[in-house]
Amino acid sequence: MKLLSKITLLLFTLVSFVGCEKNDIPIFDVENGRAIAGFNGQEFQRIVFNPAAETTSTLRVGISTVSSSDRTFVISVDPSSTLAPEYYSIDNLNPVVQAGDFTADINITTIPGEALPSGTASLILNIESVENAEIGENSVQSLEVGLAVECPDVDISALPGNYQVTASTFAAFFGETDFTREVVAGPGANQITIVGGTYIQEGAEDLILTIDPETGDIIGVDDTKISSQVSFGPNFYKLNPGGRVLTCAGIIEVNLDFAGSIAGNPHVFNLIKID
Q: FRET label pair with 248: which of 27, 82, 148, 150, CA 20 to 30 Å apart?
């Protein structure tokens, strides 16, 4: 019995210690404690950007206590945000935590168009004030919202067609003037071929890509094919990680390096379907 009493006393002491701050105000009392507000979650969250359709994602704000009256947040879009307004809409920058509740939702809808936002673009939201609540020292007051650009599925059969080159790192260096490509199916399963390859002016051969049919990731290239001919070449295709296809939008993003005399020069070769 004495041992049980000591354990009970210890547990009570620990709960009392973590349940109060120095001013002895309970912070885990959901009715009488301090009303601490903030975004629910980490300081960085991702939402889905579907290039083919509007997609709505939900973010949440919350207050640590309940109240008998509604409480309104005032949220602003930080001017340092790099996601252009044409790519998203926000249903409400003044979410209301209803009486008796702890949280309220903010719905962000991403809007597809002819172009894609940068993969590093982000939206930054700031909580300016909260009615009858305070921003605590550890509250998430500023939230960075990044994009996860993804299609609802992968359809490799949709990729063949004519494309415009949208990014080609060494095109100017090699004097490249041809910025259209034809993409054909094969030669193997889950493969496509970019006819003419990367740098036509440099005598590049066709670029054959192998695609993961589940994720759309580019998982292989034909590294026997020449990617460029220079006075100290030839150089061959070498795949770097991070390439992918977005079949719903007709986008091919390839990360490459050279295997040969100019190895160690990573570069991108991106295409968008034009018909």
A: 82
Which tens digit of pLDDT belongs to each residue from 176-219? 999 999 999 999 999 999 999 999 999 999 999 999 999 999 99
CB contact set of 185 (below 8 Å; sequence gap of 6+): 156, 157, 159, 160, 191, 192, 193
Q: Give the C-alpha separation, 252 to 22, whole Å.
A: 57
Which whole-number Å values give the CA distances from 134 to 28, 120, 121, in the listed order? 15, 32, 30
Pairwise CA distance, residues 177 & 171, whole Å: 8
Q: Which secondary-structure segment (H or E) carries 105?
A: strand 103-110
pTM over 0.90: no
> How far apart are the C-alpha atoms of 222 and 238, rounded to whole Å?
8
Identity at 263, one-letter amino acid code: A
Give the pairing type, strands 226-228 and 235-239: antiparallel
DSSP alpha helix (H) spans, 141-209: 171-174
**Residue 204 near residue 233, CB atoms below 8 Å:** no
- 8 A C-beta contact, residue 142 and residue 43: yes
